[in-house]
């Protein structure tokens, strides 16, 4: 008899739902699977809402606009996590729902950084690099910094001893302050909403860390013949997965060749809704909504999950909860280690203006780097997404016609406020205050002064985990502690550990399930992909 007799999955975000999806494919139908979700819906931070326009702005009775309160796009790349999510999308029959943003479209090519009082375009090709270098203040003084990189001094003693370093320190050492504070900090704001001086280069920019370890620099073209040393036991596995996924999805992946990012006509919520529908079809999945988990206890025949509505024992428990939540349910030393993964909050402000083409430029949007002084960013903004350009509107140049999320034309923006800026300041949680700040920002920076016909602010508390310096060592310690305290019956997945993007969350859930099933439910933490080796 399989030791996997019953499974609880804690948390019904994309990580939890994907875990359940892969479990239903891997386990026999008689194994019951229970999802515990503290709220009344599944999806976690993935949430899309269709708002009906006020009557004065409607052409038809149900004219609507779609707002994303969390993630809005998925990245298309050759990475296994990206190909895997398209495999999932195909299996869920969601291909016709996709909005493809071609690499050659302005939405994909035109990305901006606000600096020196204006928006500066980021180069998308070698000729554009030369053109922008001389015309945009953002790049002033950077050429020398790049040319000096291969000759910069190697890793300092402190970074060697801790075997990690902050992105800020690493990049300043390699390239100097301009590239670090103007470009790198902006990119990090766009993904992690985090502080480059706290986040780990080893965990977030692993390939750069490895390059420096192997080549002594990150750019030396002439040294690239030496392959990067890797003792990663999972790298072969990822390669095999990738090969199989590419074979299974050849036609679909070929059709995505010229695509940069994708979204869905009915929003990212489609992914959650179809996953939910699919897992419920299997007949052995139960969802316990509105039932927050309060405690986990290791018992002889499994783990007892105590939630608001009762206590039940399962042979195996997958946690897809944020690490700080799991810390509240467990005992030290595991709980202490889980608390070492902090997170930041973001206020997501969605705005819709009835007038189309209000923006001074076309593109994906702009980011605000650390180099912008406080007086130029009193709103503590991280960036602005031009949604009506980025995913919703067909703006020519090969975009798929008719791929609208909204039934009317207009200008749609999302302003992201907060993140690490609120480490030292009070976060703005209030709906109206956040909208007022967002409007103040876009009025000053891009001259949008109109009154929005729809405005929505969503305070996303502790929504993005921060992989701070020492994250990798902490993962290894969590791996040991979870095995010691739960004997391989508690498996960890979710954005707190091995990657924050939706693609990563889904792929890591798949790996956690495959490992658990392959080893018959014995001796797995879910963190093996990183915890079993150092680099
Ligand atoms: C504003 C924003 C924009 C983003 N943009 C992108 C993007 O464009 N592309 C991209 O790839 N990624 C993006 N991300 C990242 C990505 O969306 C998240 O990392 C991912 O959705 C996290 O999923 P998760 O399931 O791990 O966690 P969560 O979504 O946090 O799910 C955890 C679930 O657990 C539930 N829960 C909490 N406590 C308990 C408890 N005690 N008992 C039971 N249930 C509980 C919660 O209600 C929730 O449903 C973005 C994130 C944010 C916040």
UniProtKB/TrEMBL annotation:
It comes from the Eukaryota. Keywords: FAD, Flavoprotein, Heme biosynthesis, Oxidoreductase, Porphyrin biosynthesis. Gene3D superfamilies: FAD/NAD(P)-binding domain. The keyword Isomerase does not apply. Binds 1 FAD per subunit. Residues 14-514 form the Amine oxidase domain. Its cofactor is FAD. It is found in: Mitochondrion inner membrane. GO terms for molecular function: oxygen-dependent protoporphyrinogen oxidase activity. It catalyses: protoporphyrinogen IX + 3 O2 = protoporphyrin IX + 3 H2O2. GO terms for biological process: protoporphyrinogen IX biosynthetic process. GO terms for cellular component: mitochondrial inner membrane. InterPro entries: Amino_oxidase (IPR002937), FAD/NAD-bd_sf (IPR036188), Protoporphyrinogen_oxidase (IPR004572), Zeta_carotene_desat/Oxidored (IPR050464). Pathway: Porphyrin-containing compound metabolism; protoporphyrin-IX biosynthesis; protoporphyrin-IX from protoporphyrinogen-IX: step 1/1. Its EC number is 1.3.3.4. Belongs to the protoporphyrinogen/coproporphyrinogen oxidase family. Protoporphyrinogen oxidase subfamily. Catalyzes the 6-electron oxidation of protoporphyrinogen-IX to form protoporphyrin-IX. This is Protoporphyrinogen oxidase.
């Amino acid at each position: 008899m399989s030791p996997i007799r019953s499974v609880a999955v804690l948390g019904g975000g994309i990580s939890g739902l994907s875990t359940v999806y892969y479990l239903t494919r891997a386990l026999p139908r008689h194994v019951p699977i229970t999802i515990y979700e503290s709220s009344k819906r599944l999806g976690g931070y993935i949430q899309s809402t269709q708002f009906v326009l006020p009557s004065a702005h409607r052409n038809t009775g149900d004219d609507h606009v779609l707002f994303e309160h969390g993630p809005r796009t998925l990245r298309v790349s050759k990475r296994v996590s990206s190909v895997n999510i398209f495999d999932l999308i195909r299996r869920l029959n969601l291909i016709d729902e996709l909005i493809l943003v071609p690499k050659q479209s302005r939405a994909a090519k035109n990305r901006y950084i606000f600096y020196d009082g204006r928006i500066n375009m980021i180069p998308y090709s070698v000729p554009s690099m030369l053109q922008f270098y001389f015309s945009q203040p953002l790049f002033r003084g950077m050429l020398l910094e790049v040319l000096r990189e291969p000759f910069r001094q190697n890793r300092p003693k402190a970074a060697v001893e801790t075997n990690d370093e902050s992105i800020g320190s690493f990049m300043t050492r390699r390239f100097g302050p301009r590239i670090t504070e103007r470009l790198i900090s902006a990119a990090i704001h766009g993904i992690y909403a985090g502080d480059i001086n706290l986040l780990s280069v080893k965990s977030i920019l692993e390939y750069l860390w490895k390059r420096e370890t192997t080549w002594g620099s990150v750019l030396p073209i002439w040294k690239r013949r030496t392959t990067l040393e890797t003792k990663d036991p999972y790298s072969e596995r990822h390669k095999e997965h990738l090969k199989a996924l590419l074979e299974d999805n050849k036609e679909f992946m070929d059709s995505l060749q010229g695509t940069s990012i994708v979204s869905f006509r009915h929003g990212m919520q489609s992914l959650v809704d179809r996953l939910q529908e699919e897992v419920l079809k299997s007949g052995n999945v139960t969802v316990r909504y509105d039932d927050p988990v309060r405690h986990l206890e290791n018992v002889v025949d499994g783990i007892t999950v105590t939630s608001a509505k009762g206590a039940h024992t399962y042979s195996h428990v997958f946690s897809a909860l944020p690490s700080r939540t799991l810390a509240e349910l467990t005992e030290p030393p595991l709980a202490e280690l889980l608390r070492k993964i902090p997170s930041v909050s973001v206020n997501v402000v969605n705005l819709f203006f009835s007038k189309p083409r209000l923006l001074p430029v076309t593109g994906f949007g702009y980011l605000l780097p650390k180099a912008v002084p406080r007086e130029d960013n009193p709103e503590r903004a991280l960036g602005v997404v031009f949604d009506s350009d980025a995913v919703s509107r067909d703006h020519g140049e090969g975009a798929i016609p008719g791929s609208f999320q909204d039934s009317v034309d207009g200008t749609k923006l999302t302003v992201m406020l907060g993140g690490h800026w609120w480490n030292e300041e009070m976060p703005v949680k209030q709906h109206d205050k956040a909208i007022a700040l967002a409007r103040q920002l876009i009025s000053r920076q891009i001259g949008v002064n109109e009154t929005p016909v729809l405005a929505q602010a969503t305070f996303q508390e502790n929504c993005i985990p921060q992989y701070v310096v020492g994250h990798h060592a902490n993962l290894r310690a969590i791996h040991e502690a979870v095995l010691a305290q739960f004997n391989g019956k508690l498996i960890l997945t979710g954005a707190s550990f091995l990657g924050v993007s939706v693609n990563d969350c889904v792929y890591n859930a798949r790996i956690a399930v495959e490992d658990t099933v392959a080893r018959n439910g014995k001796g797995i933490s879910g963190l093996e992909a990183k915890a079993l080796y150092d680099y």
